[in-house]
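Support reply, case 0932

Customer input (verbatim):
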Amino acid sequence: MTVNDIGKIVLSVGVTQILAELLSRKFIFQSDSYKKAVATFQRAKDKHDKTAAALAAKRLLYQEQQQNPGKKSSQQISTKSLVKDENRLKFESNDVTKTAAEVARRHTSANFSTAIVFCILYRVRATEYSGKIVALLPFEPFHLLQKMMTFRGLAGAAGFESSTEFHFLWVKALGVGGESITKPMAPLSPDINHASQACAFAFIYFLCNMSVKVLINMILGVKPPPGADDGVATLMNSPQSRKMMESFGVDPDEVAGFNKKLS
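Our regenerated output:
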């Protein structure tokens, strides 16, 4: 295991994420346009909540009037008044989803930019560590994991046979009948006994993204306000997105239900 190589990968992921968070905070989340979008969303949300509470109270009074028609009340609620308030609530609800999508769009653009940077970082580092064993795993990963990550970028059609770095684990020799065979050498430690335990850069990079990157985002990242924190789902729930989906023959409610199941 090359501790120095792993340290470089962890450091590069950590520094890149820190820079991405600081730049996003500086140019996006501290900008006047973002602050204005958040303030507009908060006002729309407060107005919607106030209207919803008033409508709920009015519905209770209306139900009491229907159950006790002879009872006099200081405030008489008509069906027309309820319909009017319900339409108002629907309009304010659309306003909330529209302003929430505007806030979520800025967070999504920041996340998308960070993803592009990390794709570039992966390409650069993967080229640097191409054909090089970065670590030795204490277990033998299953075939799909080997194919996708642990052997990704290592030389040889079988993932290891033409890589000189695997020669400390496996050597080619001649069998009894003169045929070429591959046999294991003595393991470096009791935990290392098979060449499939070799680990390429891609797996270490993946683990760093799932740990170091997430941890830094939790510490330095700017979280969207409640109600605009569903990411792409918030964008898809906006009136414009719903109209676009309907124009393509897609039911927005089905998409929303599918997103809820995934979350």
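We compared this against your earlier run and they match. Two observations from our side: The chain has eight helices and four strands. The helical segments are 3-29, 32-67, 79-128, 143-150, 201-220, 232-236, 239-247, 252-262. Please reopen the case if you see a mismatch on your end.
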